[in-house]
Records
---
Amino acid sequence: MPVLYFCDRGMPCGRFRVIAYSPKKGVDWCVSWQETEQEALGTLIPKIVETLKAAKDNVQRLMDAEDVAAAKRKKEREEEWERYLSKRMPARQIKLLPIASSSLRKLSKGGERL
């Protein structure tokens, strides 16, 4: 019995496709155009240019909003890190204090090695 292999990935169709997307991470904006038998690439170019010109302000607004959101996320992460350090560091310093003081006593008594 022959083994059959199936692939669910798209196969090349031999048609030209143009994909426009936002260059900024976090901005989900994408438009694509593909030539077909009924519509050749030459007829698509004016539509592509018109769509991109119309989308310019919207994409810029989305990118600006992402910049603001990224700055807010960064500030929140920094504040969370500061809260973590303020809770953890005093506890660690208290635990290390007896060790450090006993080591200093040993050193002052006779120069013992640690």
---
Amino acid sequence: MIISPTDTPSLESPSQILASSPSLEYRFYLRNPGEVKVVADFLPALSLNNERGRRFAVSIDEAEPTIVSLSSQSGSGSDWSRSVLQKKIAGQSLHTISTAGVHTLKVWMVDPGLVLDRLVLSTSTIPHSYNGPRETSAEIDAVSVIGEEETLSVSSADRYRRIVNYGTLEVRDADLHLLGDLWNYGTVRVIGDSELNIGGNLANFGFLDLLTWSGAQSGSVSQLGNVLMREDIRVENLQVSEGDFRFEVPSYRGHFYQLYESATLQSGDWFPVGSLLAGLGQNGNPERLSYQIPTSEFQNFFKIQVD
């Protein structure tokens, strides 16, 4: 998007911008109030007039526009060279929004000659990448939101356009069919041979539990949170005490732990020892389950099965 004609007068104050400047408007959905960073990417075009700057302004809802200045280098200099290599020159601003829900972003002209290419809004750190994050769905009504105290168990028959998760999303021996993005701020737990068919991006800002997952996944992943992997299943604090062999296993909520015993290691020769125990830890903070075996049974083999 570019301003025409290119000799349009520059504007110098928020009051002039509100009274006279053209603007672009975009609606977006914000789950929680707080600080939002707006990064605007422009094409690295040459300045039309060295006596004028390269400025634009940003506002959200009815707030006063914030004027942002891009680098003044044009045609030479390290900033100019970097912007040509990256095919963009970026400016950013910070805005505090007091309410959740639908808001309106406005980008205002201050100086002509800028060619707007892309806008990125974020409420937390975005992982670095050459092309930046994928675009997200503009259809607010298509968003399935899981609240902080809610749990959604996925069925293979279900279809979703986009999911924003603040609670628990569980995919247990099922297939997740998602047309767009999955934004996770809570817990996503994938169990068994489940498949994640994600047409957009899985952006994890919370806890991604893949402890017992053996399935397949399509779509890209942006990893900013914690991930629980199969290698996190382990035995700790082994010791012999008071005639017993004792050990602990870190456990996590949503999983079940069973001790098995075998004298031969053959597949059909494993038998459960004790009761099935439910995991207790959550969000990367495991609680340990304690086991003890009489030393008289040391000649046998033992294993922990997690599902």
---
Amino acid sequence: MTRKPRRETPSKRVSDRARDTDRDLERDLDRALRFGADRLCLWCLCGSLRCRRARACRGDVQACSGRIVTWLKAIEAERRARPGFSEIEDLVKTPADLRAYRLWRRALGDKGYATGD
């Protein structure tokens, strides 16, 4: 005598589909993070020999992506703390300050800067 297979309840089918959807989302997230990590060359910052040898992410891509968030925050904080040349130019008000600023830029060796005295 053979047993009939148990019928799945509708709630079990829904939970299986939800689990499959979660796996698909996780896989898509990993794929997108790995693509971004490879384009940003995060393997250079990684301590894993496997990643550095392959010159691509070969480990936990979510952990590596978490590290880059810290780097990006530090870069953004530095950018805010030290204004760029265009932001400095906006602060220069008088002709004397403008001449001093242009002399300073020339002293820095900024070849692409047009003086326009």
---
Amino acid sequence: MKAKIRALTHRVSQADMGAAIGRINQILRGGTNYFRRAVCKHTSTTSSTSPNGE
């Protein structure tokens, strides 16, 4: 994900600013949706056990 954004924001890039921002937005939303499942799964497994081990 970092490499994709870095490629779009290279200092000498000739890409249209609006198009670049739109593409970065898509990449970030895709990454967020991908990692959301992992965080949600981790939260649900850790919250189902009580801290006292009961």
